[in-house]
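Re: that chain you flagged

S.,

Sorry for the slow reply, it's been a week of failed gels. I finally had a moment to sit down with the sequence you sent. For the record, here it is as I used it:
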Amino acid sequence: MSEEAASDPDPGQAGAPLAGVIEAGAYWPRPWSGEDGGPRRVCRPEGQPGLDIQPGEKLKLEVFRDSFAADMLIRREPGELYALRHDMPKGDPLAGDCEGWVEKLDPETLKPLTVTARFPAGRYWPGGIAAHANGDIYMIFGCWARRFSPELELKAERRLPVNRPYNSFVILDTGELVTKDCDAPRGEASSTFSVLDPETLESVVPELGIPEGSIARLASDGKTVTCVGTESVLRLRLDRDRGELVIDENWRPHYGLPGQTFGWDPVISDEHVFWMDNGQNEVDWTMRDTGTAPTPVRLWWCRLDDQNALRSVEISGLPYGTESNPPAWDPERGVVVAYDAGNAVLRAWKLVGDELEPLWRKDDFAHAGHLIVHPDTRELVVQDFRDLKISRRRGLRRLFRRSVQSLGRHALVRRYPVIGQDSLAVLDLDTGEEKGRVGVPSPSQSFLFPAPGFDRDIYYLSMTSMARITVR
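Prediction finished late last night. Pasting the structure tokens below so you have them in one place:
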């Protein structure tokens, strides 16, 4: 089904996954109505053509907006673009309380059309928003869940049970929201799951504490939920007959290795789940040279039907590797893309059976954020942060980190960055060849959630900056 052919769902319907432009879950049936394109996190805008950049065409920075601070962009109907916004506590951003809100944006100018009130959130950690199959916009940010109409009128809110930040949510085929808290940034305390009724945001079953911590965001095939813990990967299912959320005891691959740190967001294909480890770091304005483990970061994958079919490969082979986001998956040709953000290496493989065959590698390519894959045009949307190498010297960086972060609170400094700035690039998915690049005056590397545009354009997002980039 094409985007044009997709019909509006019955707002009361929540019994089965909507076909066509979402691959799982009761999301609004248009491309990119949830982070990473949907709960499987394959990073593909289902049902939408790629950029198809031709020889002689270039990327152009069409619109730039200072937007300190923002976490995520999602879409609903054509022309409907929403942003998760928040403030940042001064000093240590993870040590104080913050407020969050949602904006509906003009898709061309990025100016706010409608803005919610600023709501208390509790401790900061990146959260999430999504457009539900019932038409409403949901936000989980800090330790609060909120439901809004498409016009951003507040319809329900609830403080969640654990006094820690919750890192977003996934929506099941039957409409419930599944979320968990995270002991950010170290992941030492165990996480607690909640399953929320989409009407009231109240829990539909008792909360479930898992036996380990989890910093990673959740993924889902619509029926089960996949959680990367600090030592293992868990699969959970909502058992309505028993009235509880249950852990699959027959599938729990253990990936923790001595010297490695925890994994981040999983990606679910038809037969495998992929994720990366060494997620602990000391990130500030960039992830380069911030890894805390002296080991290389690894890409892991495991068959969904066999917990013992667990494999991994070093992404760069370099020490102090790190990352904090998901890899990407191309279901058309089985291409997997992963990266070592600590050492600025971007790499791709082709999955053949259960093994990965190397395709290409790009060194000194500082990507750290969420990817966008266009299988139809064989294009990969990435970022590449350029900065002054001296600013990353460990002793100097520790000394001036708070000062640099304080300067970043000033709009003029954000608009005309001195230490470094980001770029958005489009690569050939199969070869890594660059098809287009444009600079974005963001003083912060993008670690966050961009979105495909509506007409051969891309929405860039970093913690400080928002941009619309077009093909000309």
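What I noticed first: Residues 35-471 form a domain with the Methylamine Dehydrogenase; Chain H fold (CATH 2.130.10.10).

Talk soon,
D.
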